[in-house]
Amino acid sequence: MSATDTAPRAPVSTPAPSGRRDRYRRGPMRWLVLALLIAGAAVVLFPFAIILLNAFKSPTEYSNAGPLAFPTEIYVEGMIDFWNQVNFGRKLWNSFMIAGSVAVLGVVVSLFNAYALGIGRVKGRLSIVVLFLIANMLPHEALVYPLYWMANQVGLYNTQLAVIIIFTVIQSAFGTYLLASVFGTFPQELLEAAKLDGASKWQILWRVVFPISRPTLSVLFVFFFIWTWNEFFIPLIFLISNDRQTVPVALGVLEGERLMDATTTSAAALLGVIPAVIFFLIFQRTLARGITAGAVK
Amino acid sequence: MSTLTKPPATRASGTGTPDRSSSRGYWLYLLPGGLLFAAVIILPFGMNLGLSFASWPGVGDIEWTGTENYVRLFGDETFWASFRNSVAMIIAMVVVPTAVGLLLASVLFDVIGKRFGGRTASTLRALYYLPQILPVAIAGIVMGWILRPQDGALNTLLEAVGLGDVTQNWLGDPGTALPSVMAIMVWVQIGYPVVIFMAALQRVDPELYEAAEIDGAGWFRRFRAITIPQIRPETFVVALTCTIAAMKVFGPVFVLTRGGPGDATNVPSYFAYQNFFERADVGYGAAISTILTLIIIVLSVIFIRFQAKSERKERGR
């Protein structure tokens, strides 16, 4: 793809004059490797292309020409019908509202917890961090029924608030673990200086710790948002009214019940893919930074 | 804890008593998070554990039955099938993506990145990563659609290239349902190790490769002797997080097959869900999810110990 624009640079970066033969990197082999990798990428992309191809096809054209043919005309009625039928705008708003609330609350809770654990160094902090780490590994199935029962008891069943509370806690378990270890190396001079200036703990948190750790917090925010957006199991159980469901739950339930015809399913899948791709494009940089930061920890 | 072992000269412990009294004040910041944690994680987990020793349809009285649920589980063919399918999920979500991801990342970094430029390498990386950004339920819808039996894209494609005999009801046939779900999970999962391993390779000292090259080591030797050992920490992280994800897999099974046909694609989390919410056999569902939790914790401990051991060996060298 972009191989041609970078080709002129190649000779500059190869000063190694050694007579070693490296057929993978020098000879025609490298073109074969590139071709194989592009073929692999094409296989990975094939489903996306097919979905895109068929989302704008009329049902008659689909049944005549099949899923591989290019549409002769752009047919958007199917998608519009589906959008109105499931009230997709509402689902988008629900997902956005739940994921956004969880991201904000999860970051705040993580920040508070990590402030006490990483900077306050409260007693027994190691066991507390381990506890948060274990919580992060627990399968949601081991929590879901009691949570479902409790939500019923306090009247929170089938409310988005229940989902927001649950995910705030689950996401902040990871956030606390990550932030506490980041705060363990927080520059002590800054804290000491603020203390000497007579700053209270509350002021130190918001005027020293918060601004300095903002890059890490923004990574957490993006992660929490996307993870919560993508969640399926707990929202599936807690949100049963149509007007409260999230995008993955609404589409997952429709697909699971096999109620949609081919082109509608394709349109629906595309509608589920689009927000994810938009988030990816917006958050790409933060995500790349975060994924690698998470891995080294 | 660790403050005790610090030499007295360090700043943190320099203030003595006032520091201690101020350390108490920090507990307040743990309070909201701690209370929420107790209500949403600890209490429900304890209740679930308790319910695994009971028979309860979700309403009315709880009847305590001791270990009956567990005894029943060990004789339940579906239970064993679900865990056999978990092993299949581990192959599809851990073993294959880690192995293929290592190779892809290494080739992207080493061959593509150096010969065709970083832009080409990162573009390809982004393409491989694309399925990872989808909500897993949406990924299930996309692939379920491709695998539709009569007019699906895969079967149409196979017919178009003259392989009409191979066409299948991919997700509806007991013989192909599990391999199909596995293939889908490989597709979903592959981008994650590629991204992590490519980032890890940037950490590796290029002089190692240069020295090996001068010594005449070919690409594959360098891959085996340098790449694999150097990025072992990341490999552990990928293997552990993906194993946990594989044990928990639910969304794709719900969307694609509902565990069927028969129990061909049933997994522990879906089996627990069925007992909780479809059969109102809450105690039994609680027992399944407790066993699942136990296995995840044991696997994590084994992984972490294995990692610690190999790190010690590395240092001892």
TrEMBL record, chain A:
Keywords: Cell membrane, Membrane, Transmembrane, Transmembrane helix, Transport
Domain of life: Bacteria
Pfam families: BPD_transp_1
Residue spans crossing the bilayer: 31-53, 92-116, 128-149, 161-183, 264-283
Residue numbers spanned by region Disordered: 1-22
GO CC, any one term: plasma membrane
GO biological process, alphabetically ordered: transmembrane transport
Membrane topology: Multi-pass membrane protein
The keyword tRNA processing appears for this protein: no
Limits of the ABC transmembrane type-1 domain: 92-283
Name of the molecule in the record: Carbohydrate ABC transporter permease
Naturally occurring in which organism (per UniProt): Phytoactinopolyspora halophila
Automatic annotation (TrEMBL), chain B:
CDD domains: TM_PBP2
BP terms from Gene Ontology: transmembrane transport
Ranges that cross the membrane: 26-47, 86-105, 126-147, 177-201, 236-256, 282-306
Region (Disordered): 1-22
Membrane-topology descriptor: Multi-pass membrane protein
Record-linked SUPFAM superfamilies: MetI-like
Localization terms from the record: Cell membrane
Keywords: Cell membrane, Membrane, Transmembrane, Transmembrane helix, Transport
Compositional bias (Polar residues): 12-22
Any one Gene Ontology cellular component term annotated for this protein: plasma membrane
Pfam families (alphabetical): BPD_transp_1
UniProt similarity note: Belongs to the binding-protein-dependent transport system permease family.
Name used for this protein in its record: Sugar ABC transporter permease
